[in-house]
Specification:
The chain is of the alpha+beta class. The chain is about 40% helix and about 30% strand. It contains 14 helices and 14 strands. Strands 1-5-2-4-3 form a five-stranded antiparallel beta sheet. Strands 13-12-11-10-14 form a five-stranded mixed beta sheet, with helices on both faces. Strands 7-8-6-9 form a four-stranded antiparallel beta sheet. Strand 11, helix 13 and strand 12 (about 320-330) form a beta-alpha-beta unit.
């Protein structure tokens, strides 16, 4: 069905405004008989009382507000309303005319569009996700381009800044997407290329209050790869890096690569480990983030394929509740080159997260995992 869109600018005199409106309405009168829903967009310079003035008109006409949202940006207002005119005390023309005159009096722009019940039902076929990223304009441009290519509509965008951390949150409708898995993969690949954090959650999960957050340690909580520093200290950095590269190429799994790398660290002293531990830099913004999350009552944990000697230290330093990591074997103050117990790989990380959530009666939908992989 054809949608009818009309915009009336704020500089019209009242008589001009009414004449223009009447002429336009006569031209479209034949196509709006069943269009009982009215979308109204009011925009312009903000000041107190705007919402009150428009909603007073709606009340007087006995118009039901189906949906409403208001946005403010640098003293500019955007007021969005969806109205059901089916039970209005007067005609559609009368309601729209009064809204237009009020916009003119307030020196605001008012746009409106009429919809049928079928149009409204079609628009409500939505599959919403929340996309959050921690990048600036380049990230916004890159992610927006991917969304457009995948036929994703951006419904809302908001931003937040806390000290040096800046995040952008997008509500997106993936109803027309052919493959949500491909969309996720493209977004994650681009986030790694840009070197920024990204999260994508279904709206239903996003709306549930989060209660448990797990962080990876290396290149997430801390701004380094600890095993690389250990290898430098032991004089085996090239050998360790070579094993890491083979694992990244898929020549062997994480467990095998970890055991081989730890074996090369044999003989590294506890004094060396302590010196490395004290020099580990936190990632930018981590201290502020953790302080805020603790204030809000979240339970916090570390789950890492790194080592307990460092993870336990970070747990105590930052005031975390849990820390799960690989345990290094020390004898007579030196590393033996062995890992004690089962290696913490991706599967074991998942078990730790699941078990911790279960032990504290927290749903997985209320659990967040943060990492660089």
């Amino acid at each position: 069905m054809t949608h009818c869109l009309h915009s009336f600018m704020i500089r019209f005199h009242s008589s001009d405004l009414f004449d223009s409106f009447s002429k336009e309405r006569r031209e479209i009168n034949t196509v709006v008989k069943n269009q009982n829903f009215l979308m109204v967009i009011v925009s312009g310079k903000d000041r107190p009382g705007i919402t009150a003035r428009f909603t007073r008109i709606l009340m007087n006409h006995k118009v039901e507000v189906v949906d409403i949202e208001q946005a403010w940006l640098q003293n500019l207002l955007g007021l969005y309303l969806v109205l059901d005119l089916s039970k209005a005390s007067e005609s559609q023309d009368s309601v729209i005319k009064d809204l237009l005159f009020e916009a003119s009096r307030l020196n605001l722009t008012l746009n409106f569009r009429l919809y049928s019940p079928e149009d409204m039902e079609a628009m409500n076929q939505r599959n919403l996700y929340v996309l959050t990223h921690f990048g600036g304009t380049p990230a916004l441009a890159e992610f927006s381009a991917i969304l457009a290519e995948e036929n994703v509509n951006i419904e809302t965008i908001s931003s937040a800044t806390h000290h040096e951390s800046h995040s952008v949150e997008m509500t997106i409708n993936v109803h027309g997407v052919s493959s949500i898995d491909r969309l996720k993969q493209r977004l994650m690949v681009k986030s790694r290329e840009l070197g920024i954090g990204l999260g994508l959650q279904k709206m239903e999960a996003y709306r549930k209050n989060k209660r448990l957050i797990f962080f990876d340690m290396d290149s997430t909580l801390v701004d380094m790869e600890v095993i690389d520093e250990m290898a430098r200290c032991a004089g085996v950095h090239r050998e360790v890096a070579r094993i890491t590269e083979k694992a990244m190429r898929g020549e062997f799994d994480f467990e095998t690569s970890l055991i081989q790398r730890v074996a090369l660290l044999k003989g590294l002293s506890e004094v060396d480990l302590m010196r490395i531990r004290e020099s580990i830099p936190l990632s930018p913004g981590v201290q502020d983030l953790v302080t805020t999350l603790k204030y809000l009552g979240y339970k916090l944990g570390i789950v890492t394929g790194g080592f307990d000697f460092f993870a336990d230290h970070m747990k105590n330093k930052l005031g975390f509740d849990f820390a799960y990591a690989n345990r290094l074997e020390l004898k007579e103050g030196k590393l033996t080159g062995k890992v004690v117990g089962e290696v913490v790989d991706a599967a074991r990380k998942a078990r730790f997260v699941n078990q911790t959530a279960c032990d504290h009666a927290i749903l997985l939908d209320q659990t967040v995992c943060v990492g660089d992989g």
